[in-house]
Fold:
Amino acid sequence: ENAQLKDIISHAKEYGFVYPSSEIYDGLQAVYDYGAYGVELKNNLKRLWWETMTRVHENIVGIDAAIFMHPTTWKASGHVDSFNDPMIDNKDSKKRYRADVLVEEHAAKLENEGKVEEAKQLTAALARLLEAEDLAGVRDLIVNTGITCPISGTTNWTDVRQFNLMFSTQVGSVAEDASTIYLRPETAQGIFVNFLNVQKTARMKVPFGIAQIGKAFRNEIVARQFIFRMREFEQMEMQFFVRPGTELDWYKQWAETRMNWHLALGTPAEKLRKHDHEKLAHYANAAMDIEYEFPFGFKEVEGIHSRTDFDLKSHQEFSKKKQQYFDPEVNQNYIPYVIETSIGADRLFLLTLCNAYTEEKSEEKSRTYLKFHPAIAPVKAAILPITKKDGLPEKAQEIVELLKYDFNIIYEEAASIGKRYARQDLIGTPFCIAVDHQTLEDNTVTIRHRDTTEQERVAISELHGRIAEATSF
Ligand code: ATP
Structure:
C-alpha cells in the first residue's frame, strides 16, 4: 500500500471515521466499521444521492427491498452460473489467489523493470485465455511465466477453478426442509423483481426510475486497498426503465448527469474520467465506468450500464409472470429497456476522504485538514467558548440550542482555542464559532473558516442562515 493511502487509513481510524471490523479480535479481512464521524459522512453522502435521485427527478421513486431473495432470482440474473472469479492455490503456502490478478501484477512488475513488450504480451495472452474461458491455459501461463507465490516463493500451483462470489446460507432448520439462499451480491435484482409492483402502485409511466440504497455481499478474494473492495458493502443503484430504442440516448444522458453530480460535490475534473468498456457483459449494449484517481491509480467508482431487457426478460422466463408494460403513447406492450447507475457508498466515501485529505506545509505552520464540501461534512459547526468562565459556556450553549435541531453541531470547551481549531480541521468541520467576552455585549461571534483559516465577526442571528446556505447542495 502506498504512503498516501496509509496516511489516509490511519487518519480515518484515529479520528473516528473507519475502523477494522471486530478489531479486538485482530479484525476481519475486508470488513470495516464506521465511527462517529464516518457514519455522519456516509449518511450525508447517501442522503445527497437519494435526494438528487428521487426528489429532483419526479419520475424516480425509491424502494427498500430485502437482502434475502428467492433463490431463483440468482438463477435468472445469471449470478449462480457466471458470477465467478478464476482462483488458483499455491500448494506450499496453501494460499489462494485470483489467477488473473497474479498475472496482472507480474505484468506490472515487468513494466516497472522496463520490460514493456514482455508485459504487454503477458496481459494480451491472459485476455485471450479468459475470453476463451481456458482455465487450464491460464494455469499454464502462470507456470510457464514462472510466477511465484508471494508467501512461499514457489511455482507449485494447483489447477485454476472458478469460484462463485456469492455468500450462501440456510433458511429453515437443518432438520426440516432447509434450503440454500444467498446474500444479495447486488441490489439491482430487488428492483427488477419489484418493477411491476412499483410501476402500478406509484402509478409510474415509462420512462421512470427506481432507486435503492442497501447492503450487498461478495466473497472477494483479493480484498485490499482499505474500503475500496469489501466483502460487505453498500450500493446506491438506480434502474431507469425506458422504451426500447431510446436506451442509448438515456444512457448518454445519465452518464452526463452522474459525472456532473461528482463535479458538484467538489471532485476536481482532472481526477475523474470516463472509461468505456471495450468488452461488454452479455446483458449490456453499452457500459462505462466513472473512474477516480485514487492514491493507487484511476479506479472505478460508479458504473453506468445499458442493460437492455435482459433482466426483466429473464425474470419473466423463470417466474412465468409477464413483465410487460403497456405504453399508451405508442399503444404497445413491451418489456422496457434499462439504464442503470450503480455506485458503492463505501467507494464514494473513500473517494471523498482521499479528495478531502489535505496536508499543508509552510515555514510558519503545518496542518492537516479534511476539505469536505460543507453539505457532506460530518460536523457543520463547532461552538467554542474561549474560556470556561464568565458565563461564556452558557452563552455558547444558547447558540448550540439555536442550531442543533437543523445541523450536526459540536460543543467543546476544553483545551486552547488553537488546539480546538486544529481538532475540527482534522474531522473536516467547515465552521468554528468562537464565543468571547464581546459576544456578551453585542451578540456577535467569530467564525473561523476551515479552508482559509480566516476569521470574521458575525451576529448570532445570522448564524443559522449562513450555515444553511453553505451546507446546501
Ligand atoms: P469491480 O470491477 O471493482 O469489482 P464491479 O464492476 O464488479 O467492480 P459492479 O458490479 O458494477 O462493480 O458494482 C457497482 C459498484 O458497486 C462499483 O462501481 C463499486 O462502486 C461498488 N462495488 C462493487 N464491488 C464492491 C466491493 N467489493 N466493495 C465496495 N464497493 C464495491
